[in-house]
Amino acid sequence: MAEAPLSSPTSPPQRPRWHRHAHRRFRHSLKARLVAVFLLLAFATTAIFIAGTQRALSVGWRDAAKPLLADYVDRLAQEIGSPPSQERARRLAERLPLRIRITGPELNWQSSADDDEESKYWSHRDDFHLAESGLLTRTTADGHRIEFGLDTRAWRNRPRVVGLFTLAGLLAITALAFAYVRRLLRPLDDIRAGAQRFGQGAFGEAIPIRHRDELGDLASDVNSMAASIHGMLEAKRALLLAISHELRSPITRARLNTELLHDEGETGPRRRALLRDLQEMADLVTDLLESERLGQGHAALHRESVVPRALVEETVAALRQQRDDAAGIRLDLADVPPVRLDPVRVRMLLRNLLDNALRHTPPNAPPPVVTLRSTDLGIDLRVRDSGPGVDEATLPHLGEAFWRPDASRERATGGVGLGLFLCKLVAQAHGGRLTLRNTSPGFEAIVFLPNGL
Q: Which pLDDT score, from 0 to 100, does residue 7 have?
């Protein structure tokens, strides 16, 4: 069976990879495009100026210079004489920067001793189309043809030198223009870096104001906006912390009072349901406080040297003692060198991931699997279940605070939406990341934690 051709003969050729990369960088770089516009403008201005000057000179040549040149050529031809005198032609060529060529029945002579160079010159002489018009050519009465031309040997290399200096000047102007444009647009780099810092929650360093122009005003406006956002976030955090702290006390008192009730008769089920609801409220308040602490990033961590394999085994053993459905959790743990991390927060992360995996694993499906591996930069921790997974459209929203796939928000089907959010915060506070994906079948959470700071 013949193999299909790699490409159709009529398909357009693929551009090289470096060409596509350079094209993308050019389209993305405002500085490069401004310099390109400057160069195009310079070349266009030069071309228009040269074309206009040549047009003006050609009009002046036709109206004034051509009659003067024709009269001068007539005088030169008369001085050579008829029949032409080789001696007078030679003295004329030595006295003036002229090339003279005489052809006829009695005399064939040219002023240059280099026949090859002279022949090449006369075969390509077409300045202002004078040769074709007969302006530099005269015919004597005895049938000799006299052709005149400028002898450019004295200044033949001068245009080349002028061209090199012109090119060097153009390159120097281009380099100066690029340096000026780069300096002019440097505030854009500062604004981009500042926006990235503000997006990561680092509001301590403002964008520097380098110039008092439109870009300086833009940087100042972005700083003002960042300060307003920072103030609103701090106010929200303070309010949430205050409410959470205030809720802890009445919830604790209500739980103590409920514990004192006798578990008899009809009050037994109500007492247990009330205790369960109070515990969920206490857990919610704890999660809210923890999320606000982790919002401070590295400052909230208490790092110490931990053996990751022992930490995972201890967390899974504690969960097996508390939950019957956790007995079947399988472990695939490699021997990983000690890592500096916050053991309390990592235990919470792993427990939340396992709670989520156990909750969505069907009764007769294989149990969740915990995998631990070492990488060049840190550790790779994975929790995979055998559940139905989630809709691909909901994957980008997993890990958002108070977001759940189902709108009922029943506690039995997924809590209030803070578990994965806390896991993401723990990973980010360690400088790592949390990745969630479907594995067909099942769902997998991948946590990368670096070696430590």
A: 45
- Rg of the chain over CA atoms, in angstroms? 44
Residue 449 φ then ψ, to 5°:
-120, 125
Confidence of residue 407 (pLDDT cuts 50, 70, 90): very low
Euclidean distance between CA atoms 170 and 153, whole angstroms: 28
Helix (H, G, I), strand (E, B) or coil at 385: strand
Q: Is 443 helix (H, G, I), strand (E, B) or coil?
A: strand
Cis amide linkage into residue 343, ω under 30° from 0: no
Q: Which of 182, 231, 218, 213 is nearest to 31 (CA)?
A: 182
pLDDT of residue 279: 67
- Across 304-396, the runs of DSSP E, i.e. the strands, are 304-306, 330-333, 339-341, 369-374, 378-385
- For 263, phi then psi, to 5°, come to -90, 75
Quick one: which of 428, 108, 411 has its CA closest to 291?
Answer: 428
For 361, other C-beta atoms within 10 Å of its C-beta total 21
Whether 80 and 86 have beta carbons less than 8 Å apart is answered as no
Between CA 149 and CA 12 the distance in angstroms is: 51
Pairing of strands 330-333, 369-374: parallel
Residue 369: which pLDDT band, with cuts at 50, 70 and 90? Answer: very high
The pTM score is 0.47
Rounded to an integer, what distance in angstroms lies between the CA atom of residue 49 and that of residue 179?
27
> What's the pLDDT score for residue 8?
47
Distance CA 86, CA 101 (A): 10
The pLDDT value given to residue 36: 78
- Residue-wise pLDDT for 104-154, tens only, equals 888 888 887 554 554 455 444 444 344 445 678 888 888 888 888 877 666
46 touches 105 (CB < 8 A): no
Distance CA 74, CA 78 (A): 6
- Could you write out the DSSP letters of every residue in 51-66? HHHHHHHHHHIIIIIH
Asked if 308 and 331 count as a contact pair (C-beta separation under 8 A), the reply is: no
Residue 405 β-bridge partners: none
